[in-house]
Amino acid sequence: MPAPHEIEPRVLPSLLVPGAPRLYAACFLLFAFFLLPLVVMLAGRSPLEAGAALVQGAAGNPSRLAESLSKTIPLVMTGLSVALAFRAGFFNIGAEGQMLMGALAGAALGAKAQWPAGLVLLGGALAGAAWALLAGVLKVRRGAPEIITTIMLNYIALQLVAFAVQGPLQEAARTQPQTDVLPPQSQLPALLPDTNLHAGLLIVLACAGVCWWLLFRTERGFLWRAAGANPLAARGAGIDAGRQTLQAVALCGALSGLGGAMEVAGATKQLGMGGFGYGYTAIAVALLGALNPLGVLPAALLFGMLDAGGKAMERTAGVPSVAVSVVIGILIFALAVAPRLRRTN
Amino acid sequence: MIPMEIFSWRDMALPMMLTALAFAMPLLLAALGELVGERAGVLNIGLEGMMLGGAWAGATASFAAGSAPLGLLGAVAAGMALAGVFALLTITLKADAVVAGTGLNLFALGLTGTLHRALGERWSEVRSATLPEWVFALIGAVLVPLLWWGLKSTRPGLQLRAVGEYPAAADTAGVRVSRVRWRATLFNGALCGLAGAFLSMSHTDSFGENMTAGRGFIALAIVIFGRWNPWGALGGALLFGAAEGSQFFLQSKIGTTFYPLLLALPYALTLLVLAGFAGRSPAPAALGQAYER
């Protein structure tokens, strides 16, 4: 069996992971940020005004910074989910759906059953894991490409949420398509009063640490990476690649699902219609974090600030927040052409 | 007993079939484009983005020029431009196809959404010059047999398939692998642009943010379901078109509470189809792999 360092599948540039070509990654980031003003000008707005609104909205005062951090929480969870899955050879575009199912389970256990917060989070993680395993089993047993199945599961999850908040889980008043507010015992405590920043921040730090340890310091993580780097070689070495993939997929679903439950129990405190969008940004987070759980943390913070700043930019400067997607897309392009990010199949 | 008049030809069956056909059109066009690309070994999961580009450009160009054919041209050009970005990244710069395709979808979503809102403010209301749906149906009806014959029995078709199955051998035989893949990718972009134009210039008369709603991914599944054959793609598109179209007819019967479950139907069908067909499918051998000499 090869030594762990020999099967490092894809080394990505990252700003913060030691040893990676930092300058290269920094150039791409700068490039992406210089592009945002261009998009703003296309939208017929003043780039200076929009830029000021973006920075102000992301980190202008403590409460804005808390908002950025609260957006970082779900991005870490989904970013970890995508990074872990990539490492195990599973292109998880379904973090969004897994997160929605986790949020749905969390809302059901919290707003409806009024269970304590710990069980709400556990239920969310299990729901996310089950949703991801659907795609995992379809890939391993039936050869269905996860690129398509995970996206389909995202859309189905979106409709299930829409059904639930207009049907069985709708608020007692039955006016808006949303659940009741979670009772206090089901909520995650706030870290800062009057902000959306909640105790989930500590959970995501722990999750990132555990994921890093699992992936790089345990035999299990080694087997996952081996199965992801080269399934054929892994099979030759006596590793059941399908089994490893399924384990990793279950964990990545649980991470996204937990992220969804935390969003409901900590930030929004109720579930409404519509998707989160974090699951798609997570792909950029994972790539920018060099598919390393510890790299995901700063990458998620960056995108969390972009998200909070983007919303503020929309409110004050009139630039649609969807403009941020342009920057994320270009960032993914840049990371895709980075040296040594090649498919190994 | 179900009263027979519900199933009368004129009131139910014919409109249902026409609706299915209309919903099948964008799926068919995008699937045919992707099919050609994939037979050349190019896996482009950015269909959604290219369709959005076509939908926005079609609506905007037809409104600005006041002419539907010019709008159509704009849609094709936008689809090809986005496809060109993808080809540059994956064929020329050898980037990972799945990562680049994901980037393309986000990029196009953001760009079309931003431009749409910016122009909406300037021109108040952008209404497309529309084309009747049969125009797109005609394009599809011509393309299916043409592509089937072209891929099977012509020299460029053979070269394209060789590039998708065994690029090294094709290269040795004097086929320019990168050029063939570039052309196939641009063709894919053109058809996705048309598919988007159908949505914004025929099915409706305006662009909406993210109006493709996953159709690009359903088209990807249709290529697999149709076993990389244009006739199979036609069958798959009609099946999914029927699933989408049935929503309109069942909506009144099922009530608003359960309506979201009905909306999930085409996506669930995609999962079932992939579970049944993906494993046994004859995918091109070099699909999604960058070619380096």
TL;DR?
The complex is a heterodimer of chains A (345) and B (293). Chain A has 345 residues and is mainly alpha-helical.
Biggest sheet features of chain A: none
**CATH class division of chain A:** Mainly Alpha
Please, what is the average pLDDT of chain A? 85
CATH architecture of chain A: Orthogonal Bundle
How much helical structure, as a percent, in the residues of chain B? over 70%
The largest chain-to-chain contact, stated as pair and per-chain residue counts, equals: A-B, 52 and 57 residues
Provide the succession of SSEs of chain B.
Answer: HHHHHHHHHHHH
**What gross morphology of chain A would you assign?**
globular
Shape of chain B: globular
State the domain count of chain A: 1
Number of helices of chain B: 12
- In the CATH scheme, what's the topology name of chain A? ABC transporter involved in vitamin B12 uptake, BtuC
> Strand percentage of chain B, roughly?
under 5%
Supply Rg of chain B. 19 Å
Please mark out the parts of chain A with pLDDT under 50 across 5 or more consecutive residues, or reply none.
1-21, 340-345
Q: Would you report the number of β strands of chain A? A: 0
* Residue-averaged pLDDT of chain B: 89
User: How many helices of chain A does DSSP assign?
Assistant: 13
Proportion of beta-strand residues of chain A = under 5%
What would you say this structure looks like, in words?
The complex is a heterodimer of chains A (345) and B (293). Chain A is mostly helical and 345 residues long. Chain A has a single domain, classed as ABC transporter involved in vitamin B12 uptake, BtuC, CATH 1.10.3470. Chain A has 13 helices and no strands. The N terminus and C terminus of chain A are likely disordered. Chain B is mainly alpha-helical and 293 residues long. Chain B has a domain of 196 residues. Chain B is globular. The N and C termini of chain B lie far apart (68 Å). The mean pLDDT of chain B is 89. The interface between A and B is large, with 52 and 57 residues.
